[in-house]
Amino acid sequence: xxxxxxxxxxKHQRILREAARLFREQGFDGVSVGQIMQAxxxxxxxxYNHFASKEALMAESTLHGSEHSRxxxxxxxxxxxxxxxxxxxxxxxxxRDAPGNxxxxxxxxxxxxxQPAVRPAFTFHLKSIIGKLATHFPWQKKRNPxxxxxxxxxxxVGAVALARAVNDEAFSDEILKAVNAAFTT
Length: 185
Prior knowledge:
The protein is mostly helical. It is globular and about 60 Å long. The chain has helices at residues 5-26, 33-40, 47-50, 54-76, 80-90, 93-96, 104-112, 119-136, 145-165, 169-184. The protein has one domain (55-184): Tetracycline Repressor, domain 2. Helix content is 74%, strand content 0%. The longest helix has 23 residues, at 54-76.
């Protein structure tokens, strides 16, 4: 039975959305195709009508997550203060505590290096975010905006990843606050 194109496209987007969320929460190896399809409310059977493999889904869901992250950063680029708020929101307890709704960089950097199918999408996303930060962040000194953006993003991603990894909430908060203060004050 053929479904209307709009319904098929909606199902495809639903699979991408849930896969991106679950991969950020549990890692690429931590979630199965069956779990993703269950989260979408679909059966496992139609998966291969949408994707050639789990690796293809991983790559496309990374691009899907990238689109949303880039849109959020674009929205923040309207003023210096909204850019600083973007950094505050990124390096926050709310972001730390919700990896499924957060940035794919902080959630999947360790996993992406082991997934050749994902690396091109991950690289594209990273370069795009660095470019946007270099262009739109209100740098105090215009030495080398691209280099400064790489340092800032590395600190932001690292802070969230480390804050998620420790078992001491006060220390976790301290990590976030230190990086936040380094770029927003």
